Amino acid sequence: MEPLIEKASQGNEHAFRMLIETYKDYVFRCIYGVLHNQKDAEDASQEVWIKIYTSLPQYEQQGFKTWITRIAVNHSIDCKRKKARRGEELVDEVPEKSEIPQRQTSRGVENIVLRKEQKELVLQHLQEVPESYRVLIEGFYLKEKTYQQLAAEQNVQVKTIETKLYRARLWMRKHWKEEDFI
User: How many other CB atoms are found less than 10 A from the CB of residue 164?
Assistant: First the structure.
């Protein structure tokens, strides 16, 4: 494999095409593992192969598969961050409900589907959460109960519910990885 890599780094297009054929599925799986979206992974794969091609002269013969994996994963993480930032920008720019034309109801359906998927992911990981937090998380996030409803059910003050939910969120941030929910 090293002679092929050497030829590709010297500009031999045929050698580079052979590298792509050899590793394209592997690179795609690495990217898909981070992005969890086929179209995004396909787009990112193209960009990763361009990065690999332009970076080949800097390759130092220390494990080609590891090297391309690092490029693929780093690029995927960058793509994910960009997508998240765009999502934050879109949320900041969402018009009031009265300003949304009626024909844009597909966005509402999309949001419902996304919310349902996120709830399913939370349910899958909820068994890891301590029991005292689990009840609150289920009630507040999944059943969409208010602080007042939760306080009444547990026969405690609203402030207690706020404190417990705050601690539950801290626990989730500490123990759950963002990649598990995207």
Answer: 19
* Model pLDDT for residues 144-181, shown as the tens digit of each residue: 888 899 899 889 998 998 998 888 888 888 877 655 55
For the domain that residue 154 is a member of, what is the CATH number?
Answer: 1.10.10.10
Residue 83 belongs to domain with CATH number? 1.10.1740.10
| Burial status of residue 96 (CB atoms within 10 A of its CB: 0-12, 13-18, 19 or more) | exposed
User: pTM score, two decimals?
Assistant: 0.49
Name the 3-class secondary structure at 182. coil
Domain that holds residue 54: 2-91
| Tokens coding 4 | 């092929």
Domain count, the chain: 2
Quickly list DSSP for 39-100.
Answer: HHHHHHHHHHHHHHHHHGGG--SS-HHHHHHHHHHHHHHHHHHHHHHHHHHHHHTPPPGGGS
- CA gyration radius, the chain: 23
Q: How far is CA 151 from CA 117, 135, 144, in A?
A: 27, 12, 13
The CA distances from residue 60 to 23, 47, 56, 64, 67, in Å, are: 18, 21, 9, 9, 9
Question: Does 97 fall in a domain?
Answer: no
Q: State which of 66, 91, 116 marks the end of a domain.
A: 91
